[in-house]
Amino acid sequence: MFKNINPSTVFPIINSIFKILFILFIFVLIIGLVEALYLSPKDYIQGHSVRIMYVHVPAAWISLGTFGSIGFLSLFNFIFKNKNFSLIAKSFAPSGLVLCIIALVTGSIWGKPTWGTWWAWDARITSMLLLCIFYILYILTWNVFEKNSNKEKISSIIAIIGMINLPIIKFSVEWWNTLHQNSTVKILSESSIHPSMLLPLLIMTFAFILFTLLIFLMKYKVEVIKFKKKGLERL
Amino acid sequence: MFGKKVNSRILFICLLLFSLILTTYIIFKALEENVVYFKSPSEVKNISELEIKKKIRIGGMVKNNSIKSYSDYISFTITDFKNEINVTYSGSIPNLFSEGKGVVAEGILRDNNYFIASKILAKHDENYMPPNDNNLNNNK
User: Bridge partners of B87?
Assistant: First the structure.
């Protein structure tokens, strides 16, 4: 089981697709930024501050998605003891943490002109902060513990526990009264966003996904080298 | 299907997740009062005398034609279309605060109909659209 995704077969593929992904990322990011900052209209109430959404929302989505991936990979790693799963999960963590912080900071910057406050202890924002703490805990367990301790197991358990937080973040705006508004883009029903604003949002999301993949591939490459040559711990 | 060790680990994870989800659910049930960021006017009506001195937040829509400006304060009515509550406030107002839009006010309840706010926050909805939907080209 899972023989096909072992590091030795994946390694040559990474090198060849990295360049293509990088060029695609630059291309998509430029289109996305022009579309988001210049071509898209301003909002009927919020005016130009709506443009923060084109960074805030993709960052939040992808940091959730990344933690979901880390959680499931950790679950598989815990059950099947396949080292490669934990390497992939570990490589996803840094970009996820950065995106989570971006979502919190841009949310704060967006909150001041629209709500009138930098920070509110409402359910959505607090659960997002909790996600940030889980990311930090997850990364710390890999770095703090001694070499031969079972940090793989501990980090897996942390990621699995942290997964419970994901549906809480997603549904917090529906379950409780929150200052944060409900979700705008819905999969099952019609989105309450004008198509001219949805387009830059989707392009920016695609750009952020490519960015996450790029950082992931760089980190994964390092992790595989570290794994193959155990002496290179400090790399 | 899998080996004995794998099966035992699957069982362990299932039990762990089940108990954790149950724990989280119970904690949130117990803390519901604190998780909720604001109360609606209908909930405020039921608050007893004893709790009245505490600082609370109430939220809802600003009733149409209810904002009145005086020299050093404003007054408006928060409604959830069933019950209403009158609010007075002095201080700076967020940009998005207007009639027919969402608002969250933080302050002290004087009685079940009258609220003195020390801070107001605008709550905006999830709809995004250009200013004039009809002639998009003019608003680029």
Answer: B76, B115
* pLDDT for A153 beyond 70: yes
With CB atoms and an 8 Å threshold, state whether A184 touches B40.
no
Q: Are residues B29 and B44 in the same domain?
A: no
pLDDT in tens, B16-62: 999 999 998 998 888 877 778 888 888 877 776 656 677 888 888 88
Quick check: A44 and B94 CB within 8 A?
Answer: no
Count CB pairs under 8 A between chains A and B.
116
The reply to whether ipTM tops 0.90 is no
Split into its structural domains, chain B has a count of 2
**Phi and psi of B30, rounded to 5°?**
-70, -30
Helix axes A151-163, A123-144, angle to 10 degrees: 170
Determine the pLDDT at residue A93. Answer: 94
What does the pLDDT look like over A95-147, one tens digit per residue? Answer: 999 999 999 999 999 988 888 888 888 889 999 999 999 999 999 998 887 77
Query: To probe the interface with B, which of A1, A34, A38, A45 has the most B CB atoms within 10 Å?
Result: A45
Domain assignment present for residue B64? The answer is: yes
> Which one of A121, A154, A177, A183 would you mutate to disrupt binding with B, by most B Cβ within 10 Å of its Cβ?
A177
**Does the beta-carbon distance from B94 to A183 stay under 8 Å?**
no
Chain B residues in contact with A178 (beta carbon < 8 A): 37
Contact call for residues A29 and A207 (beta carbons, < 8 A): yes
Spatial contact of B96 and B69, defined as CB atoms under 8 Å apart: no
Domain of B63 in residue numbering reads as 37-123
- pLDDT tens-digit profile of B105-124? 888 888 778 888 888 888 88
In a domain, B97, yes or no: yes
Q: What is the rounded distance in angstroms from the CA atom of residue A72 to the CA atom of residue A60?
A: 19
Residue B51 belongs to a domain with what CATH number? 2.40.50.140
